[in-house]
Amino acid sequence: MKVSFQIKLFISLVLFFSGLFVLLGVYYYKDVGRQLYQEMSARAKIQAEEIAIIPSLRQSVADKDIRAIAQFMHKVVAHSDASFIVIGDDKGLHLFHSVHSDVVGKTLIGGDNADVLKGKSTTTIRKGGLGISLRSKAPIFDDVGHVVGIVSVGYLTSYLDRITLGKVINIFLAAVLLLMALFVFSWFFTRSIKKQIFSLEPREIGLLVRQQKAMMESIYEGVIAIDSELRIEVINQAARKLLALSQPTRALRGQTIAEVIAPVPFFAREVMLENDTHDEMCRFNQLTVIASRVRIMLENKLQGWVITFRDRNEIDSLSAQLSQVKRYVDNLRIMRHEQLNRMATLSGLLHMERYDDAIRYIQAQSEHAQELLDFISSHFSSPTLCGLLLGKAARAREKGVELAFDPSCRMDRPSSTLGEAELISIIGNLLDNAIEATQRAELPHEPVEVLILQHEHELIIEVADRGVGIEPEIHEHIFERGITTKRHGDHGIGLYLIASYVAHVGGSIEVSANEPRGTIFSLFIPETGNVLRPVPTLEDQNYAT
């Protein structure tokens, strides 16, 4: 039958402390006995020596006046706790015995009188007429210093053992009460331990720990668990690798998060207590990451937080690949759709035998497409940006909206602060928002005006539409995650990403009304290459609204 951990721990505690009490009891019994024998030896010696120096007794012993000795010693015995007091002469014969008066004149028993008759006091354990006893003997001297007798004061060992046993019994009763209290304490203690470990057995806890360790090390993302005092509890290998930490996990455990990652607003205590966050872009040491933070609650009490993060460059690479594929698909779909429309128009003209109109239609379409292609390719050096703008222009035409590029548009070199993927994301999201806002406005749809101008120290991106504008209730929150001006689909991330990218390089965004209707988004991105460190939060930017 399997015994639960609680019962095992309870039995172990009881057996351990019971054994400890037994050992302490044996030690105490022996120690009390030893101390009692020492105490009684000293008491017997003092009594013997004090009796031996009484003048009247000395004279009576020298004269061997048995009657005088007996009268005097009966008074002494009445005030003594000794088991017996014996007076002997210099020949080793009894002159007085406090218990057996019939031994007077007989030889002292024990064989320990030789040293006493030589003038020395002794303390011995010997068997006498009453049994084994602890006795102390002192010599009685006459006026000239000769030994004339012996005083023997003794305590029977049986009497000493009774005293020792009485003390031990009292201690034993206290120990029993203490042991009972220990039983109660052990039971509640084991119940508390069982509750804290969620009624799991040690082997189950060990298995969970091994599983947790394996899971943590198998997670590709960096994971850090911190307690309520911001001390690291768990950090996996991916986190140490991303943060370039050389210390082992054991050395990092217990350190504050500020000792491992340079202080950033993401780890500000007041920010962490306010709310959790998901997919927030920030900078950990020298690495730009996408991080999430979730609090750990146990029985409605904050236990700490779990932080997960990924290298933003890897996410950007994957995002760029997906965006590129999506653009290719969208462009092919748009081109196919436009081509079908053109072919249908051309087919109709030919069926009506309006050949001159068909030729003019072909020339017009070719000239418009070539003009847009020539403008974009001559003003922008990035093939990726050119492809984006051509695709967005075609998509806008499909939706009945025209893109009007400012003649001063020019970008001859890559941005020194923004990556190409970030630039494409910013321009693409701005154009998508402007096209959709224009499409939702009343007919006729006016063109969306686009300005992309690169100066020596600044890149300006401006998109102006004559659409429906921004609703007043969300005007102050349009850069927050999940806030959108669109009515259908999964939105609310575009402007948030734009603001994050611009904030990361220390740029600014201005949002203004495009009278009589519509909105103008103006982005000013520094081209000095001085990216802000640490990364500012969106709240730190000065957005003009």
Structure notes:
This protein has 545 residues and is an alpha+beta fold. It folds into three domains: 5-164, 2-Layer Sandwich (Beta-Lactamase); 219-311, PAS domain (Beta-Lactamase, 2-Layer Sandwich); 366-526, Histidine kinase-like ATPase, C-terminal domain (Heat Shock Protein 90), CATH 3.30.565. The chain is built from 15 helices and 15 strands. It has helices spanning 5-52, 55-63, 66-78, 114-117, 157-196, 202-218, 237-242, 249-252, 257-260, 269-274, 312-351, 355-379, 383-398, 420-439, 494-504, and strands at residues 84-89, 94-97, 122-128, 131-141, 147-156, 222-227, 232-235, 277-284, 287-298, 301-311, 403-405, 448-454, 458-464, 508-513, 519-526. Strands 2-1-5-4-3 form a five-stranded antiparallel beta sheet. The protein has a five-stranded antiparallel beta sheet with strand order 7-6-10-9-8. The protein has a five-stranded mixed beta sheet with strand order 11-12-13-15-14. Strand 1 (84-89) and strand 2 (94-97) form a beta hairpin. Helix 11 (312-351) packs across helix 13 and helix 14 (420-439) runs antiparallel to helix 15 (494-504). The longest helix has 48 residues, at 5-52. It is rod-shaped, with a radius of gyration of 52 Å. The two termini are 74 Å apart. The model is unreliable at 530-545 (pLDDT under 50). This is histidine kinase. GO terms for molecular function: ATP binding; phosphorelay sensor kinase activity. It catalyses: ATP + protein L-histidine = ADP + protein N-phospho-L-histidine. It is an enzyme of class 2 (transferase). InterPro entries: HATPase_C_sf (IPR036890), HATPase_dom (IPR003594), His_kinase_dom (IPR005467), PAS (IPR000014), PAS-like_dom_sf (IPR035965), sCache_3 (IPR033463), Sensor-like_sf (IPR029151), Sig_transdc_His_kin-like_C (IPR004358).
